[in-house]
Design goal:
The complex is a heterodimer of chains A (about 280) and B (about 325).
Chain A (H helix, E strand, L loop, with lengths): L9 H29 L19 H8 L1 H34 L5 H13 L3 H14 L5 H24 L5 H8 L4 H30 L2 H5 L9 H5 L12 H32 L5
Helix pairs in contact in A: 1-11, 2-11, 3-6, 3-8, 4-6, 6-8, 7-8, 8-11
Chain B lengths: L18 H4 L2 H8 L3 H22 L1 E2 L9 E2 L3 H8 L1 H33 L5 H13 L2 H12 L6 H6 L9 H4 L1 H26 L3 H9 L4 H29 L3 H6 L11 H10 L4 H34 L1
Antiparallel strand pairs in B: 1-2
Classes of the chains: A mainly alpha (about 280), B mainly alpha (about 325).
Family (chain A): Belongs to the binding-protein-dependent transport system permease family.
Protein name (chain A): Sugar ABC transporter permease
InterPro entries (chain A): BP-dep_ABC_trans_perm, MetI-like, MetI-like_sf
Chain lengths: ~280, ~325
């Protein structure tokens, strides 16, 4: 597929390489700029230099000494992990049913989960706010975990059933013939095969919960449950007149690097997860 | 992120002839059982609040005036439809979504074609290109605002300074293009990934045949690749639109819907009505309208797309 029209001459190669560089620069400049800002001192942050003239770790030190950020980080990690765990367990069961079992009303059930996937989140925020306040869930971990699970479920079911369709299910039949119950066949034979798909789904769900801003800003009010995206919107410098760009940059680097490392390690899986389900074949 | 490809028929079990009819009610429920927890959970958490939204939407309720709650019928809907701010929000939503989807799709196709070539370090480049999609949107928005659009030391002005642009405050002078710029940067990787999957599913023989028949690269792309990509592009547009319509972080962080109401889209409008103006009734009515509109449009779009899918496989 590499050669669509003509041979790979050195000139062509050079042209593509140049195009490559342009593209990478386009995608990366903002990201690198953030990294650069996070290492600049307060005095040089406005100098517009791409490479910091004076390197400093002050910004990082500052965010890790303010409880505001550390607490938000703990909330974010805890909430996203718990939501991911529950959503993946429920999603696995559901995807198994979707991919494997034939039963009356399956299409209708799938249709319902489709509708939920499209439900505009913003139209639920204000009633959720009231419900959670009435139930005492407002500004708590479960108060965010519950909506995250809900909106992650369609994503989880969808990605997982794409993976599950590619599993050699004859093995399951063989296990059943050997006398295993459906539950045993699932746990002992299929689950190990499904693990990579489940893992990929977990990463995607985690990123979804990790990135959410709308629920985080409306369903929390204090540091008790405020996650990083919401905390960022309250980020200001030490004084009103101090520009918070440096600390915001440092915070952005801290919360983005783990995700990028994740993706570097599991990139093939994630790309497959995003696309294999999205399109047949 | 659900697609029409989900209900793939699983005809793996050798069907005993009378299969569907001999299932007892109990057996049917046992087969459904694994799906139920997810479904019950999702329905409870979306439909209970939605019923509450419906209820709010026929009440006049302003949190600033306690005890002001009363049944007003469809008055809130009337208020929403005659509200100029609402119409403005609809208009902004359409502008924002359409420009973002179109621009990021064009860029996405370009990048996908590029990544479809083999070259040194392709997988590294691909990862780097996906990065904008993975940066936390709230953080990305905040940084675009403070470090890219800043009139004094923003990178945008710095890069445009050779062209005689200086000290433009992008977020307040050109709020809509600024927001669209951030969203395009963020969504291009998503479009690219789906188009790339389409490109890689194309059979090399067809391309070879086109070449043998004397088509040049552009003709091959135009007449062979593009029709093949059509379903992928449509899918990406549908999924992208559903998410981009709901954009909230970027607007909250960069412009707060302003200046004035210049970048207030529907989600931000509803949020503002409920959490800033405390007009719960009108916010709820607007919410119901958005739900109905989203689902209608999505259903129509889905039908179109699933028709395409079946035509393709037929």
């Amino acid at each position: 597929m590499a050669v669509i029209g003509g041979a790979e001459t050195p000139a062509r190669k050079a042209k593509w390489a140049l195009l490559d560089v342009v593209v990478v620069v386009y995608a990366l400049v903002p990201v690198l700029w953030i990294v650069s800002l996070s290492f600049k001192t307060k005095g040089t942050i406005t100098d517009g230099n791409f490479v910091p003239r004076e390197w400093t770790l002050d910004n990082y030190q500052e965010i890790f000494t303010t409880t505001e950020f550390v607490r938000a980080l703990v909330n974010s990690i805890g909430i996203a992990l718990i939501a991911t765990l529950i959503a993946v367990v429920l999603g696995t069961m559901a995807a198994y049913a979707v991919a494997r079992l034939d039963f009356p009303g399956k299409r209708a059930l799938i249709g319902v989960s489709l509708l939920i996937a499209m439900f505009p989140q913003v139209s639920l925020v204000s009633p959720l706010f009231d419900i959670e306040r009435a139930l005492g869930l407002f500004d708590t971990w479960p108060g965010l975990i519950l909506p995250y699970i809900t909106f992650a479920l369609p994503l989880a079911i969808y990605t997982l059933s794409a993976f599950f369709r590619e599993i050699p299910w004859e093995l399951e039949k063989a296990a059943k013939m050997d006398g295993a119950t459906p539950a045993q066949a699932f746990l002992k034979v299929i689950a190990p095969l499904a693990a990579p798909g489940v893992f990929t789904t977990a990463i995607l769900v985690f990123i979804f919960a990790w990135n959410d801003f709308l629920f985080a800003i409306s369903l929390t009010s204090t540091e008790r449950a405020r996650t990083v995206p919401a905390a960022l919107s309250f980020f200001t410098g030490a004084s009103q007149f101090e520009d918070p760009t440096g600390t915001i940059s440092a915070a952005a680097v801290v919360i983005t690097i783990p995700i990028i490392v994740f993706v570097l390690f599991f990139q093939r899986r994630i790309v497959a997860g995003l696309t294999s389900g999205a399109v047949k074949g | 992120m659900l697609t029409p490809s989900l209900p793939a028929p699983t005809a793996t079990k050798p069907r005993q002839p009378p299969a569907p009819r001999t299932l007892t009610a109990g057996e049917r429920w046992r087969l459904r059982a694994p799906l139920l927890p997810a479904l019950v959970f999702a329905i409870a958490l979306t439909q209970v609040p939605f019923l509450l939204t419906l209820y709010y939407s026929v009440q006049s309720q302003n949190l600033l005036r306690p005890g002001s709650k009363e049944f007003v019928g469809l008055a809130n809907y009337g208020k929403v439809f005659t509200d100029e701010l609402f119409r403005n929000a609809v208009f902004n939503t359409v502008t924002l979504t359409a420009s973002t989807v179109i621009l990021s799709m064009l860029l996405g196709i370009g990048l996908a074609v590029l990544l479809d070539k083999k070259f040194l370090g392709r997988s590294v480049v691909r990862t780097l290109l996906i990065t904008p999609f993975l940066v936390m949107p709230a953080a990305a928005a905040l940084l675009w605002k403070t470090s890219m659009f800043n009139p004094v030391f923003g990178l945008v002005n710095w890069m445009l300074s050779p062209f005689g642009v200086d000290n433009v405050d992008w977020a307040s002078r050109y709020p809509m293009p600024a927001i669209v710029g951030v969203l395009v940067w963020q969504w291009t990787p998503f479009m690219m990934l789906i188009v790339l999957a389409g490109l890689q599913s194309q059979s090399p023989e067809v391309l070879e045949a086109a070449k043998v028949d004397g088509a040049n690269a552009w003709q091959t792309f135009r007449r062979v690749t593009l029709p093949h990509l059509r379903q992928f592009i449509e899918l990406a547009i549908l999924l992208g639109s559903i998410f981009i319509v709901q954009t909230f972080d970027a607007i909250f962080m960069i412009t707060q819907g302003g200046p004035g109401q210049a970048t207030t889209n529907l989600p931000y409008f509803i949020y503002q009505q409920a959490f800033r103006a405390f007009d719960v009734g009108e916010a709820a009515a607007a919410g119901v309208i958005v739900v109905v509109a989203t689902i209608t449009i999505a259903m129509v779009a889905l039908r179109v797309i699933s028709n395409l899918f079946t035509e393709e496989s037929a």
